[in-house]
Fold:
Amino acid sequence: MEKIYFDHAATTPVDPRVMEKMLPYFTDNFGNPNSQHWFGRRSVTAVDEARDTVASVLGAKPSEIYFTSGGTESDNWALRGAARAYANKGKHLIVSAVEHPAMIATAKELTKEGFDVTFADVDEFGTVDLEKLRRAIRPDTIFIGVMTANNEIGTLQPIAEISEIAQECGAVFFTDAVQAAGTLKLDVNAPRVDMLSLSGHKFYGPKGVGVLYVRSGKRVGKIITGGHQERGMRGGTTNVPGVVGLAEALRLSLAEAEQNNAYVSRIRDHFVARVLREIPYVKLNGHPKNRLPNNANFSFRYIEGESLLFSLDLAGIAVSSGSACSSGSLEPSHVLLATGMPEGLAHGSIRFSFGKENTIEEADFAVDVLKETVLRLRALSPLFPKDLKNEVYEKEG
Ligand SMILES: *Cc1c(COP(=O)(O)O)cnc(C)c1O
Structure:
């Protein structure tokens, strides 16, 4: 059976062109960029080129780009690093309630160091409530962190407005752009952000490599201490093949974004339209329009998302319940709960995230399997009310 991969928000395959560009840095060009010889210098050149590429894609200076081990480290570094660097100014941090666990868990840890955290509220679509955000600001607010796009429900955040709010109150503004990169055009000056994170494996690059952008003049404390790598700000031998791959993947995904977004959103829109038309008692989560082109997140009433996920997996269709990070635990998604969704409904949620190698035929096959599976699970479900008709609708035309 052909496997169908609809979990691109969890990770993506490495683009073969990216792979090709990386390969020499595992073998022939293996030098440590910190070494003082020819082998080392060759790696320095590769890392410099990668940094220049990332900087130019983001509208940043190369000296503002730091390579990390991924999105989680970049998020940790931004939040912990800024908290420590600005603690003398104040100890109040604001992060949105729908941030990735890399931010939420870090913010919670920081409360143990005496920081005060406000988790900014979102509306029913998962969009940060700007009025409430404004009211949350205090004289000692030093940091505002709101992601560009949500990884679970795809909602795009009003980061231009949030950037202005942060500038007015003098707080550092950080955006986790891990899900947005490769899809949306990113420019650290429009809207102006002070810090931004990326992760290679979310845009057809390698895993285990990421970026933290830090605007020059903004301070960030060190998190990983060791050698003098990354201009003395992050110890550890640079992942040379990783940064080469990340830069190439970022460059390609931006160059091809328009075409890929049009292709992927056509599949997504077709899928969403069929699901909503043919399966009753389903809700599309996230913002109806203001969302990533590849994300569809549904709550299927009266069934467990986990059971649905396992049945789809048996049929060869890979999806996610909530986020990859919360699956495995039976906790309902903190993102859906933040939108005001009742726990029961949040438990019945599944994320489909499409990619450039998917096809309309795969989407059609998945809807057909989904219809059958939902019907079967509802027939077995003690949650399904006896007075409702358990049925699906036939595809029109
Ligand atoms: C995947 C993801 C991360 C974590 O990135 P890793 O490189 O997997 O550590 C952080 N934030 C968002 C929004 C993500 O989707």
